[in-house]
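**Backbone geometry record:**
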Amino acid sequence: MIAFRQLELQRGGEPLIEHADLILHDGQKVGIVGANGAGKSSLFKLILGELSADRGEVELTSGSRIAHMAQEIDALDRSLVDYVLDGDAALREVERLLEAARASGDDLRQAELLGQFEVHDGYSARARAEQLLVGLGFSQQVLGHSLSAFSGGWRMRANLARTLFTPSDLLLLDEPTNHLDLDALLWLEQWLIRYPGTLLLISHDRDFLDAVCDRIIHFDERRLELYRGNYSAFERLRAERLASREAERAQQQARRAELEDFVRRFRAKASKARQAQSRLKMLERMEEIAPLRAASPFSFRLLGSDKVSFPLLALDRARVGYSDQGLLENVRLTLAPGDRIGLLGPNGAGKSTLIKALTGQLALLDGERVEGEHLALGYFAQHQVDALDMSSTPHQHVLRLSPSASDQEIRDFLGGFDFRGDAAFGRVGEFSGGEKARLALALIAWRRPNLLLLDEPTNHLDLEMRAALTEALAGFEGAVVIVSHDRHLLRASVDQFWCVADGRVAPFDGDLDDYHAWLRQRLGEGSAKTPRDEDEAAPRVDKRELRRAAADRRERLKPLTRARDTAERRMTELQNEIDALEARLGDETLYLPERKQELVELTRKRGELAVALEAAEQGWLEAEEALERASEE
């Protein structure tokens, strides 16, 4: 159990958390969401004891073992497998003592330590460590390589594997999917679903949160709000609460206006002075309901070039790779205006390499790359972020692209990416990873491309910016090619998929669920291949069979759907009754002595309805969870 009791936290004099009072039970999987800088990572530090609360306390179940990802990786000389095995400190200590007992010839001590070794699952430890590494994308051939041989992103994967290997009752993960591709993300998703302990997960991937979490903690104006259900359930419930809160605020403002008008008119009249003072006290006691903030600080569009060509870009019999080492063979593809393509494929198959070949930054080993006459290319990859001038400002970056642009035009444009006011003149080197990624996307948008090539564009972006990017891509009239592990972005932004695997690029006839099934089959059989050309047997879907299966599935789920809809209607009815009661409670004459009994009755009824609404919400959540479980079967 984790309990936050009247918790308050400040950083740099600014309040991050106020009056947090909630309990998380063992085995729950909790997603933590909120704006960047709201205090999500600080909450982890409180749990780990790295920060002290300014007020209140954090309570953990006695003896809880906590696993979390370290920020720094020091043991770069360790092999991948040994680095992961080091995550189980107790097992490593038993191994050390066992080696010493063997060296001294102490057979009795050896026997005792071998028993402890078995208790720690030592005989399966290496196999388990290797399984974690392979699941997160490492090939079997590199498991003996030292950590120093890998880039920062791959080291983070190794760090994640070590964290998962660490024996724990409580697992803290802060953005674990940032450096994963789709295949590794799907594997991690299944691992976390099976994890038996308590999970606290900070993530900006809504599909990942939906699949893994059964509770959501939302950082809302320095408060911690706990919601039952996954992220989609949280969105629905929060929208309802916000709508109710706004209605309450409008009602309160109207009531305030009435009271203030009465005081203004009658304060000086002796006959009404007592009533005026009474209303003044009511105003003082009336707690201000804060207005709703804008749902998102981002408001931008991706405008395409006025000129287009057909085709925009083509590869003909291309051989793609590095230093005469072909990774993809006989690639033949054409990108036309309006194409919206998502690239799928196993880790290391060549998706990013193909994107680089399309940009022209990676020369073809053979074949031809043909640009349309009016091609205007926009390319985003992680190294685009690294290429930003860290000593300059967002305003200067845009001004270099368009020296004749007016100051107001640049400010208005950057404001859509939430670089408002002084932020447009902030030094890029002091920005967070998310802010740098936003700036890189803004510079692409400023150029008005007609072909966008996006390689993991959502890394380091928060949920609001991901939603804004998804919406902007939906309105973009040019062509798009995307590599991403964000399934929500892919579903909303692309019309077709290409599969990059086994040295080939071919259309994939199916959706992301079909790809997941194909991937499981491939990993299980070890022999599944993508087609050598479009005429061979690619992973395809029988559309008629899909329609029949969908109809059967709808029929099977009908009782559960009916139960959920009934609960939802009941919630609406109860909320309407509560709204009507609150309107009656807003009548100032109700508080006169002669109407005391009516006030008591209405207040009692309001409490009963609130209890009934909470029960209806619980019933709806249970029905929704049952429906989700049945949908997965």
User: Anything to note?
Assistant: The chain is about 45% helix and 20% strand. The CA atoms of residues 544 and 550 lie 10 Å apart. The domain at 313-539 is CATH 3.40.50.300 (Rossmann fold). The first strand starts at residue 2 and ends at 11.
